[in-house]
Design goal:
The structure holds 2 protein chains of 2 kinds. By secondary structure, chain A is α/β, with parallel strands linked by helices. Chain A contains 6 helices and 14 strands. Chain A has a 10-stranded mixed β-sheet, with helices on both faces. In chain A, 46% of the residues are buried. In chain B, β14, α6 and β15 form a beta-alpha-beta unit. The chains are: A alpha/beta, B alpha/beta.
């Protein structure tokens, strides 16, 4: 009984904490200078999935696509209560835009099995596109509830959520299967469980193509499954750079050109004069 | 005539969203450069009168699906309806507002049509693109901040038909409407299949935004250099005496001092007021992308090296609270 829940997560560079050494002199981003973190809204998606599992029972799997070190976000999810982790990692996935990413992820999801609810963060902080969730839903032929700011009710047959929309809030009800994209308003993610950290801190990946749960007879997670393009039967021409219709024409680092800024003193006379000038020019009334 | 440029028309309660009129305005410019027609795709119920407005902003033709079941936005039926229009009329470019509606259906449609989609563009141009020795002419250059806003990327979807992009509200300028210009309204025979109706809207709670940054003429904004209750109070007071509204940078909103509706920048609201006063805002690109088209910018910061000074018209280096207090007094005492 209970629901079969999947959360898709992503490891991202911590773009919100950019420091001086992050930008190279040629204007490109020095990724090595950035910490890799659990994409914040994916953490909200995980929390919502865990809450649903606690309410109704069931099983929660976590899927990520990325380089080998992305296994960290899967372990982090298991420390918080996920039952299983799948790492989709293959050099042939590199350079994927959202379309190629969603193609690979949906192929992995098909291999993993049938899910009642798929949750993902609204968007990742490195691209801010919010596209992969709806694109996975389309490719799997699923209904979608995007921008979910609160789960109002969840039962074995339907879920009711609040969606933040342009003109307010919409309360929507949908049956399963359904894909949700969750915003940071939805919840406060729980910390890792010390017990689980102790139990699973040495968990490693294993090339295990089986969709069956990677648990021993005591229900303890034995490993994180690592899959590649062949495991999921992906058409590699639809993956990575070759499967991406969008191409980067140019990248410009944001180096500011000095404008003709008029410096104003911080003394009373100078500020009075500035306010006077703005008033004269009808900038302020 | 070559394939047209199409804009998805977003509506709420039968009224066209401003972002759609902004995109029609920009779309006219791009369509003229390409020498193609400017088309629109609209889905709703009893909108014939309202759609005439599109003509005033330069739209040539609107394909309209009129259906009572489609009066309110629902992801699957709307995505399917718009996709039906795109497949039938094969535009080379389709633009959507980067709203909760546009960002909901555009990726679904892009996935179905396997076409390129670029989110949250801050500029759109027509230009050339060369890839592996092959030159593509008259392509949509989609310019957007990426990587947390630390870089500006120009994205092209060279082989994609169509090439799709979303643009936030307030980014493109709305042209002055010309009431003599007319749009051709083409009603599309389309009925959504029953199995597309998988969600049920139980209630819509309308929230009037208490902070209207988009139409504000004056914005006084707080950054991390003003992220304390005393400074916020002074920022609010200056905004109040000038008849403006309070803005904020993302870190200030994240810190909980001001609500999200105050946030200016790439992930907040894009603004172009007559006067923008940046208080203690360092001027990261995410923020600048949302306000750099303000007519006048005053930057106040205690760090003379803050990047905000590079785009400011006036710069004041010093203590935020002291300067704000002097500005409030100067305004109150002005003759």
């Amino acid at each position: 009984m209970g629901l079969n829940i999947l959360v898709t997560v992503k490891q991202v560079p911590d773009t919100h904490n950019i420091k001086g050494d992050t930008m190279k002199e040629d204007g490109t981003v020095n990724r090595a200078a950035l910490n890799a973190i659990f994409n914040p809204e994916d953490m909200n998606a995980l929390e919502e999935g865990l809450k649903i599992k606690e309410t109704l029972g069931g099983r929660l799997s976590v899927l990520t696509m990325g380089p080998p070190r992305a296994v960290e976000v899967l372990k982090d999810s298991i420390f918080r209560g996920a039952d299983e982790g799948v790492l989709l990692s293959d050099k042939r996935f590199a350079g994927a835009d959202t379309l190629a990413t969603s193609y690979a992820l949906q192929a992995a999801i098909r291999k993993m099995g049938q899910f009642d609810i798929i949750l993902s963060g609204r968007q990742a902080i490195d691209g801010d596109t919010a596209q992969v969730g709806p694109q996975i839903a389309e490719k799997l032929g699923l209904n979608q509830l995007t921008f979910v700011s609160e789960v109002v009710e969840v039962t074995n047959s339907f879920i009711t959520v609040k969606r933040s929309i342009e003109n307010g809030i919409e309360i929507v009800k949908a049956g399963y299967p359904v894909l949700l994209t969750v915003t940071d308003e939805a919840n406060e993610p729980r910390p890792a469980s010390v017990k689980k950290v102790m139990a699973y801190k040495n968990l490693t990946t294993k090339k295990d193509p089986s969709p069956a749960p990677a648990v021993n007879d005591k229900g303890v997670i034995t490993h994180i499954k690592e899959w590649d393009a062949d495991t999921i039967g992906a058409d590699v021409s639809l993956c990575g750079l070759s499967g991406s219709p969008t191409k980067v024409k140019e990248i410009e680092s944001v180096v500011l050109t000095a404008g003709d800024t008029k410096m104003v003193g911080a003394d009373k006379e100078a500020i009075d004069a500035l306010i006077h000038e703005l008033t004269e020019e009808y900038i302020i009334g | 005539m070559a394939n047209g440029l199409m804009v998805f028309i977003e509506q709420f309660e039968g009224k066209i969203a401003n972002v759609s009129l902004e995109l029609i305005s920009k779309g006219r410019e791009l369509a003229d450069q390409l020498g193609v027609s400017l088309e629109a795709a609209a889905v709703g119920y009893e909108m014939e009168e309202e759609l005439k407005l599109l003509g005033h902003y330069g739209c040539d033709k609107v394909y309209y699906i009129d259906n009572e079941e489609l009066e309110f936005f629902l992801s699957l039926p709307y995505a399917d309806a718009v996709s039906h229009i795109i497949k039938k009329y094969a535009p080379q470019i389709v633009l959507f507002g980067a709203t909760t509606t546009g960002r909901d259906i555009a990726p679904r449609i892009a996935s179905e049509l396997r076409c390129g989609l670029t989110a949250d563009c801050t500029d759109l141009q027509i230009g050339e693109f060369t890839l592996k020795g092959e030159t593509y002419k008259d392509k949509l250059l989609q310019i957007r901040p990426a990587f947390g806003g630390n870089i500006i990327a120009t994205i092209v979807s060279p082989d994609s038909m169509p090439s799709m992009a979303t643009v936030r509200s307030g980014v493109m300028k709305m042209v002055n409407p010309d009431k003599n210009k007319k749009v051709e309204i083409v009603e599309e025979a389309y009925t959504p299949k029953d199995d597309l109706f998988l969600s049920e809207i139980l209630e819509v709670i309308k929230i009037e935004k208490s902070v209207d940054l988009t139409s504000a003429r004056i914005i006084v904004s707080a950054g991390m250099g003003a992220a304390n209750p005393d400074s916020i109070k002074l920022v609010a007071e200056l905004a109040s005496v000038l008849g403006g509204v309070v803005g904020a940078s993302r870190p200030v909103v994240d810190s909980g001092l001001l609500k999200k509706e105050h946030q200016v920048g790439q992930t907040g609201t894009t603004v172009r007021p007559n006067l923008y006063i940046a208080c203690g805002i360092s001027g990261q690109i995410q923020h600048r992308a949302g306000m750099n088209e303000s007519k006048r910018i005053i930057a106040i910061n205690n760090d003379p090296e803050a990047p905000i000074f590079n785009i400011a018209h006036y710069g004041i280096v010093g203590d935020i609270n002291d300067i704000l207090t002097k500005m409030i007094a100067a305004y109150k005492n002005k003759v």
